[in-house]
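Hi P.,

Sorry for the delay on this. The queue was packed all week, but I finally got your sequence through. Input first:
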Amino acid sequence: MTAWQVIGLMIGAVVVLYLVTQFVREPGTALMNLVRGLIVGVVALVLVNLAGGYFGFHIGLNPATALTAGLLGLPGVAALVIIHLWLI
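Then the structure:
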């Protein structure tokens, strides 16, 4: 396993731990924040794909990108854009 994979797993574990603690602390508020993040993330992903279509930029819609955009919201979409520009 490379160092980047370990770093990615650590970041993923921190995000999951944060989401679980928020849900345990206040389930109603955490659920509403999750739904809000899901809506904002999906809308932002669609807008990035619509605007990027004019420049030849496209983020594929698959379970991994949908989960990232849905759980992390706008920061998740920003991370997907940065990953796409940096790695691909």
